[in-house]
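Justification of resources, computational component.

The compute hours requested in this renewal are based largely on the per-chain cost of generating structure records like the one below. Each record pairs the submitted sequence with a full structure-token output. That output is archived, and it is also reused by downstream analysis tasks.
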Amino acid sequence: MPRSVQSNPQPVVPAGWDGRRSVVVADRTVVAMQALRVGRLAGSTSNVCGKLASIPPLSPPNGSILEIGTLYGLFATALLRMVHRAGLEPDLTIVV
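The structure output for this chain reads:
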């Protein structure tokens, strides 16, 4: 029996998720990482903020994160901060 397939599925967003708040928190995290001046974040500020702000709605199911090709590790640090804010205990693996 064929299943009905929805042609334009709606994104699944957790209840109570506030996109504006996530972007503000991501921007503050980027500013904090850049203030450390240990290195630099690869990509534009809007690109990095977009990747960091997408963590709460995507919510990694088991907290396992694979970072491939990190420059100075600043994005991985920012990523860990955002995952902690989402309430997960991350397990980060970095492949250089």
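The first strand starts at residue 64 and ends at 68. The first helix runs from residue 19 to 36.
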